[in-house]
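Quick one, T. Sequence first:
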Amino acid sequence: MTSVVARRPRAGEVRVRINAIGSMIVAVVEEVGASAEGFVRGDRVVYPRSLGEDSIVSVDLLVGIPKNVTDRQAAELLAPGLIAYALLNQVLPMARGEVVDVRIANPMLRAVVSAWVEARGGAIASDEQPAEIVYDQAACKKAVLVAGHRQGRLQQAATEVFQAIRAGVFKDVDLGSRVGSEAAA
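Structure tokens:
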């Protein structure tokens, strides 16, 4: 019987155990490398799914998850929430009372954007209310670029998304059954 020795995290890295996979990966920090500031063993974190299911992750790519946000909420809502945050605050800022048309193909992102528009006092366009702002695929592409820039901005946007989750903004958004590997937390 052979045993596999896992690589230890290097400077600025942590070893994680995956709890849930959705549009993001949710994990628990199991080991912290030298100079890996900001995280300790036992912290719940989320990171981009594009990194794959590697157990060693750079701390620069991690976002801590507050205790009152579930693994499933973080796995499914953080990525679309970050894009929605960028849309509503940076790409095409929306003010209270504005009428918005959400023409986004991705159903989860469309639901998150629509929920946040309404929670911020906006209205969704209808035949009776023409749109003042249109969130479409082109605006989403810009938002994806904005959402992925600079760690400080990402952390601030993630904080806003987590606050919206805790406030129940996305309570009616269907999380579907995509989350895999959900372990009891």
